[in-house]
Amino acid sequence: MMSELVLCFLFFLSCSHLVLSSSFYFSNYSTKLCAHGQTIALLQLKQSFSIDNSSSWRRYTLGCTTSYPKTDYWKEGSDCCSWDGVTCDLVTGHVIELNLSCSRLFGTIHPNSALFLFPHLQKLDLAFNNFNGSPVSVGFVRFSSLTHLNLSDSEFSDLISLEISHLSNLVSLDLSWNDGAEFTLHGFNSLVQNLTKLQKFHLGGIFISSVFPNSLLNWSSLISLDLSECGLHGRFPDNDIHLPKLELLYLSGNEGLSGNFPRFSENNSIMELDFSGTNFNGDLPASMGNLNSLQTLHLFGFQFSGSIPSSISNLKSLQILDLSNCGFSGSMPAWLENLTQITSLSFYRNQFTGEIPNVFNNLRNLISLDLSTNNFRGQIPPSIGNLTHLYGLYFFDNQLEGVIPSSVNGFSSLSYVDLSYNLLNGTIPSWLYILPSLVELDLSHNKFTGRIDEFQFHSLENIHLSMNEFQGLIPSSIFELVNLTSFSLSSNNLSGISETSNFEKLRNLTYLYLSNNMLSFTIFGNSNSMLPNIEWLDLSNNNISGICRWNMGKDTLKHLNLSYNSISGFEMFPWKSMQILDLHSNMLSFTIFDDSNSMLPNIEWLDLSNNNISGICTWNMGKHTLKHLNLSYNSISGFEMFPWKSMQILDLHSNLLQGSLPTPPNSTLFFSISHNKLSGEISLLICKVSSMKILDMSRNNLSGMLPHCLGNFSKDLSVLNLGRNQFHGTIPQTFLKGNSIKTLDFNSNQLEGRVPRSLIICKELEVLDLGNNKINDMFPHWLETLPELEVLILRSNRFHGHLGLSKTKSPFMSLRIIDFAHNDFEGDLPEMYLRSLKAMMNIDEGNMTSEKVMREIRHVHICKGFKDWEFCDVFSQYCRHPRVLGFCDSPSRHNTLIFPSCTLSFQEWWKYSLIRGCRHNWPNHVKTSHAFYNNIISLCLYS
Fold first, then answer.
1. Backbone angles phi, psi at 92, to 5 degrees
2. What pLDDT does residue 181 have?
3. pTM to 2 decimals?
4. What are phi and psi of 334, to 5 degrees?
5. How many CA atoms lie within 13 A of 932 on its CB side?
């Protein structure tokens, strides 16, 4: 008997594969199994990391069932083989497994780390930690016996060591979702060639930039393959997949990977497929029906057409079906009711039409249902009410109408409801107010009416009811929702007075939108303790009046919109984090802006337009941060300086500014100072604002000569408006090659000389207005090649001579408005120009009504002292809808512009109901009639 016991004991010792872990360790074992050197190495490893107990660790532990700092329980003096996450060989005491996943570790793994002092490791799991950009270095190659390596979601980065491919015993490799890590093409190919024993191969999110390696489809042992978002490109192999053990295949997020849906043999074990975000297309093959074990199918973005293939109805084990953004059209299939195991169904962003079929009685396991962004019509099917396990319901962005079903069975787990952007009406059904788990409710952009009732549970975090027709008061229960972070009731018919103290309990509220209602608020008293986390607040277009003394959100508020109210002033601007402040269209009446350097230290966007602000501005608020300032439509008389270093948009038009033209900051992109009373010359300093895109100085009393640099000081300049001033001299003659100019307006000045020939390089020019000056030149026929020119105003200048013949096949191909009246042109009006005005031919004759015409037309001016005046069929054929066609002349000018001779029939006169002009007799050959006068607005001749 004793000999048998000895033999058994010796056999027990010889079994080197037996291990001792914390779950198998005998507390009465008298001798420590762990070698002293290993204990020291593990403690060094512990000391090399810190424990991240802040809220940020949650980002790294989303894949963890539990997360806690395992190394906190590693204590000197105890056997390291009993420590949490450590497993030892029972005979040798070598550490052979190390599982520190989900341990909240933070720090860097250096090449000399104590981690690499365990050469007998067989399994290493460091997933879901933060190793702060550590490389997957050559040190890992020391684990020559390693069979399992998991470094996923742990903030590794840089190139992954080529030597990883030498770990030839690996059966499981997971390096996924280390966004900064990547393989060289050679490194990846070596991995595929050498690690042919792999059963689990996960590299999701690791940049590879390779074609899909065909040899992977020969790994008969492969069970799980994840190459999502790896930069794969080229075509996926078309041959059938014969991998009988393969259960998971993820290729999502490889936008450059194309091909057809793979064909699988009958002998397959596929449970999960994800080809979302690839460039796969074509039809689903008949072999789809062979996937008897398939539970998850993600095909987001797969380019299908037509209806959903019925072969999917055979997938009886299917639990998750995502066919979002696949281009499906037609009706939603009724056979969906056969997928009785389905828990998540998404047809988001397709082109389905018709009604949603009433198929949900058999889909009792549904947890998430997303039919958003389609063209569904009709009512919400009543069988929705039987989905008792439903967690998320998303029907937004359709054309659903009618009322929300009033009868439901439970919905105790329903947390997210989004029915926004539909045509639903009626009142909110009572069951939506009593859902115990409801977190988000979005019914915005519908036609709901009535009052909003009281919510019975405090689980709500987001409520969006804007753009409806709700009436009455804000329900008092809203102010008891202590978890509320976002609340929107904008654009309804709500009224009543709200006490600011009502918001006292909403300490988590971040976004509050109550604009476009008829709400009134009591005078904003001391409210420093209210809404301590508010960031966005929109109360615009309500009935708020008086002086604002509000300081809620003093340290957090970033966006405040109080526009379109009757606020007369502010006691202070206390907000330290404010970036966007919109107070336009109130009754603010600051007489002077006092020194304000310390106010709104982070302000970037400020709109005080359309108020009663007057005086000289000495304001330097936002000196280093302000980018957008609108002070238009006030009564400001001047600025002491422009102190803003980062200004981009500066709008000062329609004020009472006097004196010299101020120069905007060099960073300015948009500068409008029109409709003021500025005088004097333009300073050359304006040409240092080299990023300017829009410059409008029109309607002032500016004078002097234009700086020559105005045509070439900014390659980004799109609009230059200097009209309605008193400038003299010549137009700047030089424009930059490759410029961006679209609009040039010099109208109503005293400019002389010639039209700048360099305008020919302004290829994006759309509007050129030189009217009402003293320009002395021939007709600028060389402008006819500008491809985008739509408006050409030359009227009331000193242009002269013959219009000449065009040398271009299609001159002025985009022109819609032309006016060269009140000049000294003579000779024939070139028929080529009339035939080329094709941009004016945009009326559908069969659909033309006088109302449509009048909506389109501005004016057409055809009048002058003609010697021989006749219209021809050129107009009837080519000028059916001119926006503005003016080639008219003043009675005081003696000119001879002659139209080509021809006769226009009565039936075609109606097309020129767009013509408006002067005063005189009709041509003799035009016989008037009642129908003629009904269609002609007015047409006349100067004599």
1. -85, -25
2. 94
3. 0.80
4. -75, -20
5. 10
